Amino acid sequence: MLYNLSDNPSIASHYVSEIRDVNIQKDPMRFRSNLERIASVLGYEASKKMDYIQREVQTPLGLSQESHLSENPVLITILRAGLAMHNGLLHTFDRCDSAFVSAYRSHSTKEDFTIEVEYLAAPDLDGKIWIISDPMLATGNSMVEVYKALLKFGTPKKVVVIVSIATPQAIGLLEKELPKSTDIWTAAIDPELTSESYIVPGLGDAGDLAFGTKL
Fold it and tell me: Can you give the pTM of this predicted structure?
């Protein structure tokens, strides 16, 4: 199921406008902060679709029946750009285990590339809810390859994908390659990809903007 927050503009739309702005992008701390806040909002919205149980809580003055998450998801971040979003999700799901995966484009030409997955650090993922985050969902290939690589740690109970900006092409690929029950949460959907598979209008390279230009 696709959930696009820009269909009903909220504070997340304001944060997206700032991460796109070439002038505001000059401040990497603000860029990281906005990615973090977008992730917190998307995580909050995604939490509404999760299961809850009722627990009795002792207050100083009596007992109260309260809703608790029935289980904690595992937060899976695609390095390096996803680190800022990871912190935002940790604010929302503060008792979750975390997993980290590095995925990058290995270019044979300027326009042709494959996705290489190298570093993997994860707890037992079998039967867990996976929340996989990355700022940009351009072609969707990185997300699919990360999902496949993670299967060595177990089979998910459910997959939740959280991204700041996505494309229709990438969404279509995830709907084809990931489990049918997968939820995709995004703050915006952009219509185009360049010949080099960059999102238009997009925002540029999220990893470089957040953490500095790589060689």
Answer: 0.92
